[in-house]
Amino acid sequence: MCGIYTTNLSFNKQDIKQKLKSINFRGPDNIGMKEINGVTFGHLRLAILDLDSRSNQPYSFGKYHIVFNGEIYNFKDIQTELEEIGYEFETTSDTEVLIKGYAEWGENVLPRLNGMFAFAIYDELKNEIFCARDRLGVKPFFYYWKDGDFEICSQLRPLINKNLNVSKEAISIYLDCGYIPSPLTIFNDIYKLQPGHTLRIDLANKTKKIAKYWDLKDVQESDISYDEAKKQLHNLIIDAVKLRMQADVPLGSFLSGGIDSALVSAIAAKHSSQPLNTFTIAFENPEYDESKIAKQYADIIGSHHTETLCTPNEILAMLDDFKKAYDEPFADSSALPSLLLNKITKKYVTVALSGDGGDESFIGYWHLMLVDKFEKVSGIPFNIRRLIANFPFHKLMGTRPETIKGILNSKDENELIMKIFTSFDSLNLKANNSWIDRYYPGFKSWAKKPLQRAADLNIKLWLENDSNVKVDRASMAFSVESRSPFLDYRIIEFARTLPISYRFKDGITKKILRDILKEYIPEKVFTQPKKGFAIPLGEWIRKDLKEDILNKLNVEFLNSVPNLDITKFTKQLNLHLMNKHDYSFSIWKLYVLALWCEEFNISLK
């Protein structure tokens, strides 16, 4: 795992070195730079495979030069295939395999890759740069483009300059989502390469071409038996875990009270030659604490377990790290405990397995259940549902009033699904979901069943732009490589073909994963209530953070935020501080945006 940089702009060597140093945490083991024909390459290395300097980057092979961030987990199989063709290898790294694979197959190397990656390869003879990002967007890829001038980087910070303009569209979407989805960034002229896409830059003609090489397919539900599905899935997960255990540095696993991390950790422990290191966060508030369940898991699988108590003071102390690592507005508050978890983890290991991605494929998130609720009322005519939404009795249904109104006021499943991933109670004066149709058009047609369509949008939109961003920045902030077996594209593709009832049945989420986990951990242990990886943000906003929030979210700042419904937000803020309602997400979004403006000295006007 590393940081990459490429440009055709005429920065001097010191300028580029400073850009790389601003994200040095991504690769503290080596800074490499090379200039070829007016194109400059930079690389920050976090050494995981082949720790020798021979695998430092930029790495060259004949006319090809590469900067690469990530891991190709099946690189040994690809290397064997290349050796049979006649290639020889000087290192034991996946970087050499990737560049020689491209030399042999060109962009057709991509379907062979199983991994997380973002890379740029320069072909001297063609005078072009070929770039690609992994299928699920695990690794980041930012690029600046204007009139043929470009910069490519693993993070946004090195690309920021005083001539950039803030994107009003991006901020409007942020007000709904709490993140900025690809291909947008907070700035005009800087973009994210979307997952499963390539970027080809013709240096002579100063043109670029973006193409898709992978996407979710129109799902065809399999008629496979449940027992056979469980067997095949179990084998896939075992293989995905084992592939991700390859490392020349110490390896461990994150372990919460959930099913996904328990299954990953249990399999890893079984296939490890020594006791597995596992890591968890504990909270003082029992409403959020899963540490006791995680400790039970650790005892059962025989891991060497490290538990860290997360207090308000420790979390608030992470705000400086948060601002440095998350260099674009990002309002998932679980990023803070994630940072603390990685800070502790780094003391013991450099690679950590995680359970991220299981909820997307196996219908685990609570918000996906809203689609199930909608199906129960969808037979009621829309006009009648709209009338029902205005009555107060829905407050007794155990769900937030705004959410119940959102369900009843949705014309169809697709409209509800888009609301789930934007907002049921928007602060955006110009709120609409047209951007989803523009940037993520496929979700309406990939699957016939609404629940699968919601899960698909979860994979394409939320997973990339929230979950993967949180994990990548939090881990890299402390030079830890996080690997997620459930993000193996083979598992994603296989899970989508399984009947919904194999994954969600009678209100039970992730049914098939639970049945696999029974082979490692007693059911009575993992069926204890799941708390979620969250912090008591609402309480902290009323106490520990109150003064700073009121100071930063002043009238001048609120007036500077494009399309913000200031009246509505002010009402929400006051109701929250009086403990009459929980509007912590709305408040946190604006607070994070203010912190970002302060960090980069940028006005939104």
From TrEMBL:
- Molecular function GO labels: asparagine synthase (glutamine-hydrolyzing) activity
Q: Which InterPro entries does the annotation name?
A: Asn_synth_AEB, Asn_synthase, ASN_synthetase/amidase, AsnB_N, GATase_2_dom, Ntn_hydrolases_N, Rossmann-like_a/b/a_fold
Entry annotated with the keyword ATP-binding: yes
The EC number(s) this enzyme carries: 6.3.5.4
Into which EC class is this enzyme placed? Answer: ligase
Ranges of residues in domain Glutamine amidotransferase type-2: 2-204
Give the protein name, as stated in the record. asparagine synthase (glutamine-hydrolyzing)
- Organism from which the protein derives: Chryseobacterium gallinarum
